[in-house]
Write a structure and sequence with these properties.
The chain is about 45% helix and about 25% strand. With about 300 residues, it is of the alpha/beta class. Among the domains are: about 80 residues, Orthogonal Bundle (Arc Repressor Mutant, subunit A); about 110 residues, Periplasmic binding protein-like II (D-Maltodextrin-Binding Protein, domain 2, 3-Layer(aba) Sandwich), CATH 3.40.190. Helix 9 links the parallel strand 8 and strand 9. Helix 1 crosses helix 2.
């Protein structure tokens, strides 16, 4: 019999993502491991449950039956986990570490729900991704949320939500910018060690943009300082002051009209945020509960 729910969780993730490779990224395991677990279920049931098509994964009739059963089991287990945490009744502070954009602009919206789910206080530490992973390895934090994967042994990485980087200013600018347009701005740049700087440089190289010709007004180390610099720039300046930043950071200002965004023509600067935790704690009830809650947030 299926002795644990892990293989059925893998099956559910494959169906949700319609892809073995995307499911492996979400689960933090290799694609061969995903394939092996699906094959185990098929061998156990002695029937085929999924077909791989060009446009994704398609359930067989037996797969549809299994999907209904597994979905019911998943809901029942999630409900039971909440009751189990009440039984544990352990008082402690759950520490989450996150990089700047996530810690300052994404995670605060969900700390209350996380606290409610684990029945304990939640503390958040914000720093650059490498420092957060160091803290995770040194067991100073329980779960890490980072903007770029810094792969190290002993850590499980789960692909989380997608993030998009956009050009922005406090003046209206063209919605789609080509390489020539970029030299008409003054720029605030992120420091070279940041993941934002790395992604931007890669896209500029693809666009054949000579960054030495860009007028860089200043280099700053955090998304918040960059946003504030742009917000307080001269709105009547002939050359708008611009930068590139996570759309999550300026979401409120875009909605109220104090900042304006633009995209690079024929380019999309995107990345995934990642959830990370120690392999030795993959069966920890509190870590598991927090990770599953975060993964349930398909769009933020």
């Amino acid at each position: 019999m299926l002795k644990d729910f892990a293989k059925l969780q893998t099956f559910l993730m494959v169906i949700k993502e319609k892809s073995f490779s995307k499911a492996s990224a979400k689960l933090g395991i290799s694609q061969p491991a995903v394939t092996q677990q699906i094959k185990f279920i098929e061998d156990y049931l002695d029937t085929k449950i999924v077909d791989r098509k060009k446009n994704g994964i398609v359930l067989t009739k037996e797969g549809e039956d299994l999907f209904r059963i597994a979905t019911k089991l998943e809901k029942s287990i999630q409900s039971s986990e909440k009751d189990l945490l009440k039984i544990i009744n352990k008082e402690f502070t759950f520490v989450m570490g996150s990089s700047f954009a996530i810690g300052n602009y994404v995670l605060p919206n969900y700390l209350g729900e996380i606290k409610k789910r684990i029945g304990n206080e939640v503390f958040m530490n914000v720093d650059i991704s490498p420092k957060i992973i160091d803290d995770l390895e040194n067991k100073k934090i329980d779960v890490a949320l980072i903007e770029s994967p810094i792969f190290r042994d002993g850590i499980i990485y789960r692909e989380w939500v997608e993030d998009e980087l956009v050009v922005f200013s406090n003046q209206p600018i063209k919605k789609n910018l080509n390489a020539d347009d970029l030299s008409s701005f003054d720029w605030v740049s992120r420091n070279e060690k940041s993941h934002t700087h790395k992604l931007t440089s890669e896209v500029f190289d693809e666009m054949n943009v000579d960054t030495s010709c860009l007028n860089v007004f200043g280099v700053l180390t955090s998304p918040t300082s960059i946003k504030e610099a742009i917000l307080h720039a001269d709105k009547t300046a002939e050359r708008p002051l611009v930068s590139i930043i996570s759309r999550h950071v300026i979401k409120s200002e875009l909605e109220n009209g104090t900042l304006y965004e633009a995209k690079l023509k024929n380019q999309k600067i995107s990345r995934h945020f990642y959830i990370a935790y120690l392999k030795e704690r993959k069966h920890d009830a509190f870590v598991d509960n927090v990770v599953n809650f975060l993964l349930s947030l398909n769009k933020i």
